[in-house]
Amino acid sequence: MRAKARERFRKNKTGERVSKGWYVFTYNGNKQTERKANSKESAERIVSQINSEEQAADHWMVGGALPCDEACRGWIKTHKAELSVSTEATNRSLIENHVAPYFGSRDLRTITRDDIRAFAEERFEAELSAATITNALSVLRRVCSLHVDAGLLDINPATGCGDMVKRISRRYAGQGIREVDAWTR
Hints:
- By secondary structure, this protein is of the alpha+beta class.
- The protein contains 6 helices and 3 strands; from the N terminus they run βββαααααα.
- It has helices at residues 40-59, 68-78, 85-103, 113-125, 130-149, 161-169; strands at residues 2-11, 17-28, 31-37.
- It has a 3-stranded antiparallel beta sheet, covered by helices on one side.
- A hairpin with a 5-residue loop joins β1 and β2.
- The longest helix is centred in the N-terminal third of the chain and has 20 residues, at 40-59.
- It is globular and about 70 Å long.
- The mean pLDDT is 84.
């Protein structure tokens, strides 16, 4: 499946072509699907993301270089059938907003526990909650775990990341703690 962005037109009563908006078209064999985008930039961003996921899915579990961002995008593309729609959207957001910007195309084999700790500390300093940091690291942990199972990684550097985040969060006490506003009688 590949994607393209195109502007659709219609004719008004006077016969002039009027834009209906920008659409993202995806192709899977002979099947074409479309969805409306808010703008040209939005459509191009969606196309770029779909095509990069497709490219990552084609070779995310092969030998050679193991770029972190491609591995995570390939995982979400390959395993999305196992995830609920909301979990897929959450994991995709965690990859695009936290994991991929921090680790980038760095090889998974070069990521260490110190890098995981530095990631957590930097995210706490950016005033993110412990839950968000733990969830972002859990995506990385799942991807690394699959690579360990396939024999492409020796160890999973993100194992036990939840406990590490809890220990680090003590230093940033009070941050990200929400008070529940429950209804009373």
